């Protein structure tokens, strides 16, 4: 078991510093070429890997161009075009409805506020945060996906369990200028080393400051259960 730095903000800063060295090019892995494509890619990425989304959006973005195309297509046809994505039927409905709202309420532009974005169908705070950060250069919070949730808990940075509670808790201790990068760093670390089922603690740059480190700790703080 590693020994976390105290107070929590010192631990957060050390984690960010080390992961920045480890993953200097860390950034969003979804592919898109405009704000609408970003919004659609993020809606599709819920409960689905970015890799799969990128594969599907390659032909999707070639076929559909602009909110009018998504708003006017038959929902079943759109769903068929997404059929390798988890929950593709629901997501086709979200995309179509969002495109309609973007045309009718926002002059065809993807909105740039948290309130307006979260009024769109299928858009929660997490999706809105990603669109604000990467589409509008507005950083209002920290995107808490499954990697951020798991690893922040393992590292003792939060004891909260739900993403809605984890986000404000992290915003108190992660420096504001790295809120956006924090997410990408933890996602990279979650994919490369601190995986859900079998983290490679022996080869982890955070081992000496991680209270979940498998060598000594019996408990995975992400789940609160024994390794
Ligand atoms: S890989 Fe192990 S030591 Fe590293 S952050 Fe994850 S649980 Fe902690």
Chart the SSEs and their pairings.
Layout: H1 8-22, H2 35-44, H3 50-63, H4 67-72, H5 75-80, H6 88-105, H7 114-118, H8 125-136, H9 146-154, H10 163-171, H11 179-192, E1 219-220, E2 225-226
Antiparallel strand pairs: 1-2
Task: Tell me about this structure.
With 227 residues, this protein is mainly α. The protein has two domains: 8-26 and 143-226, Orthogonal Bundle (Endonuclease Iii, domain 2); 35-136, Endonuclease III, domain 1 (Orthogonal Bundle), CATH 1.10.340.30. The chain has eleven helices and two strands; from the N terminus they run αααααααααααββ. It has helices at residues 8-22, 35-44, 50-63, 67-72, 75-80, 88-105, 114-118, 125-136, 146-154, 163-171, 179-192, and strands spanning 219-220, 225-226. The protein has a two-stranded antiparallel ribbon. 37% of the residues are buried. Bound molecules: iron/sulfur cluster. Residues 151, 154-155, 193-194, 199-201, 204, 206-207, 210, 212-214 line the site of iron/sulfur cluster.
Superfamily (CATH H level) name of the largest domain: Helix-hairpin-Helix base-excision DNA repair enzymes (C-terminal)
Number of self-contained structural domains: 2
Uncertain ranges: none
- CATH topology group of the largest domain: Endonuclease Iii, domain 2
Task: Output the keywords.
2 domains; 11 helices; two-stranded antiparallel ribbon; binds iron/sulfur cluster; Endonuclease III, domain 1; 227 residues; mainly alpha
């Amino acid at each position: 078991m590693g020994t976390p730095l105290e107070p929590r903000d010192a631990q957060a800063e050390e984690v960010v510093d080390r992961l920045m060295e480890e993953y200097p090019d860390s950034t969003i892995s979804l592919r898109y070429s405009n704000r609408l494509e970003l919004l659609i890619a993020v809606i599709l990425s819920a409960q689905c890997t970015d890799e799969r989304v990128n594969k599907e959006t390659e032909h999707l973005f070639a076929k559909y161009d602009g909110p009018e195309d998504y708003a006017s297509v038959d929902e079943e046809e759109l769903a068929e075009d997404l059929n390798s994505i988890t929950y593709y039927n629901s997501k086709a409905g979200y995309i179509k409805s969002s495109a309609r709202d973007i045309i009718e309420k926002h002059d065809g532009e993807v909105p740039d506020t948290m309130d307006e974005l979260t009024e769109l169908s299928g858009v929660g705070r997490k999706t809105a945060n990603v669109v604000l950060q990467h589409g509008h250069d507005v950083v209002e919070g920290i995107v808490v996906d499954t990697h951020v949730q798991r690893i922040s808990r393992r590292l003792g940075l939060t004891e909260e369990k739900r993403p809605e509670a984890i986000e404000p808790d992290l915003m108190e201790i992660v420096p504001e200028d790295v809120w956006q990068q924090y997410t990408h760093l933890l996602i990279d670390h979650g994919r490369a080393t601190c995986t859900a089922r079998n983290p490679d603690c022996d080869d982890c740059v955070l081992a000496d400051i991680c209270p979940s480190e498998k060598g000594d700790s019996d408990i995975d703080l992400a789940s609160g259960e024994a390794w």
